[in-house]
Amino acid sequence: MIEPAQKTSSIFSCSLLRLLLLGSVGIPDIAGDVGEQGFEGRLIVMDPTGRQKPLALEDETASAFFWAPDGKSIAYFTPKVIDAPTPEPGQSSANRPETFTVWSLSVMDAQSGSAHAVATFLPTDRLLEVLPFFDQYHQSATIWSPDSQNLVLSAYNGNGDPGIWVVAASGNLEPRFIAPGWVGFWSWK
Question: Considering its fold, how many domains does the chain have in total?
Fold first, then answer.
């Protein structure tokens, strides 16, 4: 049985009459932690009528999520701490961090619960300012294209320049650079 969380964010999907929760439901040791990157928790798709069993994202937590306009998929962000790359010969390693945080953007099927990564990236500072408040922005801003086929994200390129990128929700195509910028959203139409 999934127990109610102490801290949750929820967004209702009118198209499928489902509720999506992000919270510390039933796993206090790995979910619901407030870490360096903000709140993390398990994604759980629930039928408010109780006729269907709750569907939880397994083995992974999320920090923010966005329903696809068609209601069939959920895009979610997860921070990942990785080892810093080894400096090139001749470069100083002084004052270099040993680890840094990149983010993974993944898509979960709302019917089956299966998920796949579509991009791993270094988000811009402006995107990091928006993600903790994703549940407040979901009515006005979306990372999904209107046809639910693509997602937009804001990331630094290899030179450290901020840019707007489009990635396929299927994960089958390489991210495509659109323009320089700090944060991007799709229009609803």
Answer: 1
Residue 142 lies in a domain: yes
In whole angstroms, what is the distance from residue 3 CA to residue 60 CA? 18
Q: Is 85 left (phi over 0), alpha (psi -120 to 50) or beta?
A: beta
What does pTM read for this prediction? 0.75
* Distance, CA of 139 to CA of 67 (rounded, Å): 11
Domain region containing 164: 8-85+96-180
Tokens representing 92 are 């100083």
Cα-to-chain-centroid distance, residue 116: 12
Q: pLDDT value at position 93? A: 58
Instruction: Quickly list DSSP for 127-139.
Output: HHHHGGGHHHHTT
